[in-house]
Write a structure and sequence with these properties.
The protein has 214 residues and is mainly alpha-helical. Helix content is 60%, strand content 8%. α2 packs across α3 and α5 crosses α6 (135-144).
């Protein structure tokens, strides 16, 4: 049995989630954590992007400012290519299509497949400056992690996959998740404070001790 079960709410377009994902992978191995992946779509359409950020050009520059700050505190700054995304010829993408892709991966291969595809799509987004609102890009990423292409195409289009994304959205509302990344210990409801690996390690170690002591 895992030491802790942690719900990890994230959006593929979120640069801060990129930093946390690799740290939680390290801690998952170290402490035998059960990480449960929950999609949290910040904006689900071009209309929502415009309402939140303004014009596509304004959205890109504001968000890339966040990328720059995130890169400064990243364990892997070389994988956050601000200039490549600045030069990209598509509007900065919303996260709904990628959330559907990750939930499709989960349906096909469980939590491990969800996490593997989430990380692969984040690389496509942050490192390769690809349009992750494009289903062909998502299909390529799914193939890269070993998912069957025909099965992935079928499941991402299944209405049940959209319902799974909405179920995560409802769970976020119930847990009062308003920003991401969010890491919630399922047994206690306690939240890990996002930060460097050593800070997260100390928090997880303390939570494990409390759980074992209980």
């Amino acid at each position: 049995m895992a030491a802790l079960t942690i719900d990890f709410f994230h959006d593929v377009v979120c640069c801060w989630c990129f930093n946390i994902s690799s740290r939680m992978r390290s801690l998952s191995d170290e402490f035998d954590l059960d990480i449960r992946h929950r999609s949290f779509v910040l904006q689900a359409s071009r209309q929502e992007m415009a309402a939140r950020w303004g014009t596509p050009a304004e959205a890109r520059e504001t968000i890339l400012g966040h990328w720059s700050v995130c890169r400064d505190v990243s364990d892997r700054p070389g994988l956050i290519d601000v200039e490549a995304m600045r030069m990209a010829r598509f509007d900065y993408p919303h996260g709904l299509e990628a959330a559907l892709a990750c939930k499709a991966a989960e349906a096909l291969g469980g939590q491990a497949a969800h996490w593997n595809l989430f990380d692969r799509i984040q690389l496509a987004h942050l490192t390769e400056a690809r349009d992750i609102a494009d289903r062909q890009v998502l299909a390529d990423a799914a193939r890269d992690i070993g998912l069957d292409s025909a099965a992935f195409a079928r499941v991402i289009a299944d209405p049940a996959t959209a319902r799974a994304v909405e179920a995560d959205r409802r769970a976020a509302r119930l847990l009062q998740v308003r920003s991401i990344p969010a890491l919630i210990i399922r047994d206690t409801g306690a939240r890990l404070v996002n930060g460097p690996l050593e800070d997260l390690r100390a928090q997880v170690r303390a939570a494990v001790r409390l759980t074992v002591g209980a």
